[in-house]
From TrEMBL:
CDD domains: GATase1_AraC_1
Keyword Transcription found: yes
PANTHER family documented for this protein: ARAC-FAMILY TRANSCRIPTIONAL REGULATOR, HTH-TYPE TRANSCRIPTIONAL REGULATOR RV1931C
Name of this chain's protein: GlxA family transcriptional regulator
Residue intervals of the HTH araC/xylS-type domain: 209-307
GO function terms (MF aspect): DNA-binding transcription factor activity; sequence-specific DNA binding
Keyword terms, alphabetized: Transcription, Transcription regulation
Pfam families cross-referenced by the UniProt entry: DJ-1_PfpI (PF01965), HTH_18 (PF12833)
Superkingdom per UniProt: Bacteria
InterPro entries, sorted: Class_I_gatase-like, DJ-1/PfpI, Homeodomain-like_sf, HTH_AraC, INH-QAR
Length: 311
């Protein structure tokens, strides 16, 4: 049995323990069961989370773990010296040491992320970079693997991290079966973006939302202002004015963002040639897509594909 320990502390986010369920379901799917999952804290006993939920925990001792996962909290954790020292020592013997969300700050305090690629919740990634400049912080990732150290983005990304661990241990089909039983899409790629263009635009009216939905379903089209205005049942002039007022972007800029997001998703989920991705997402040719990626990410699509393979 592989021991998987989740480390909690006062103020931890309960959603982080959802990742434990993935290991639990893996035991139901795989024969024989593989994982022995437990929750631990520095002091043991009942630990209160960030809201009204508390959990029972065992005291951290000299138990050997295969995998240790440090949970995050709603803010930046302030781990005790004892917890930091425990994690620093445990890192020498575990096969995998991981963090969910702001748990990365605990690993950072222990000096375990220095010189490594790491991620955390996008909102606090700049603070992680400022406090610990030796870390190669990549805020726009669902999770990252650097050697034996795994770090994930905010909260629910911990489930993606757990599914990735299960896939490495037991294979893709078991991980897929676990995801299905959890009623989840099979895990998001580690290099996948934490952000959604549609969520970022936040249209306030159904008309603009309808236009964006039309655009997302028809990215191969030219998606002119006239076409989008027709989907929104507005004149082109009314549409352009309302679109900018609600989203803060021009229609052309928003459509480019949707195309980039779709193209990046195709890069993450398959091995389609760049030319095919460019055509399917409305860029028409690879050079136009390359210029858009350089504007958005500072690197061409080929570099992002290589980085995803390394994630």
């Amino acid at each position: 049995m592989q021991r998987v320990g989740f480390i909690v502390y006062p103020g931890f986010q309960i959603i982080g323990l959802a990742a434990a369920t993935a290991f639990e379901v893996a035991n139901l799917v795989n024969d024989p069961p593989v994982y022995e999952v437990s929750v631990h804290s520095e002091s043991g006993g009942t630990i209160r989370g960030s809201d009204a939920v508390s959990v029972d925990s065992a005291t951290l001792d000299d138990t050997h773990f295969d995998t240790l996962i440090v949970l995050g909290g709603t803010g930046i954790p302030d781990p005790s010296p004892g917890l930091v020292q425990y994690i620093r020592i445990a890192a020498r013997s575990v096969r995998r040491l991981a963090s969910i969300c702001t748990g990365a700050f605990v690993l950072a305090e222990a000096g375990l992320l220095d010189g490594r690629r790491a991620t955390t919740h996008w909102l606090l990634a700049p603070e992680l970079r400022t406090r610990f400049p030796a870390i190669k912080v990549e805020e726009d990732r669902i999770f990252l693997i650097d050697g034996a150290i795994w770090t994930s983005a905010g909260m629910s990304a911990g489930i993606d991290l757990a599914l990735a661990m299960i896939e490495k241990d037991l294979g893709r089909e078991i991980a897929r079966s676990v995801a299905q039983k959890l009623v989840l899409y099979h895990r998001r790629a580690g290099g996948q973006s934490q952000h959604s263009t549609l969520l970022a635009l936040e249209p306030k009216s159904d008309r603009i939302q309808s236009a964006l939905d039309h655009a997302r379903r028809n990215l191969r089209n030219s998606l002119s202002v006239e076409e989008l205005a027709e989907a929104a049942h507005l004149s082109p002039r009314q549409f352009s004015r309302l679109f900018r007022a609600e989203t803060g972007e021009s229609p052309a800029k928003a459509i480019e963002q949707l195309r980039i997001e779709a193209a990046r998703l195709m890069l993450e989920q398959g091995r389609h040639p760049i030319e095919v991705i460019a055509r399917e997402t409305g860029f028409d040719d690879r050079n136009r897509m390359r210029r858009a990626f350089l504007r958005a990410y500072g690197v061409p699509p080929q570099d992002i594909r290589r980085n995803l393979a390394d994630a």
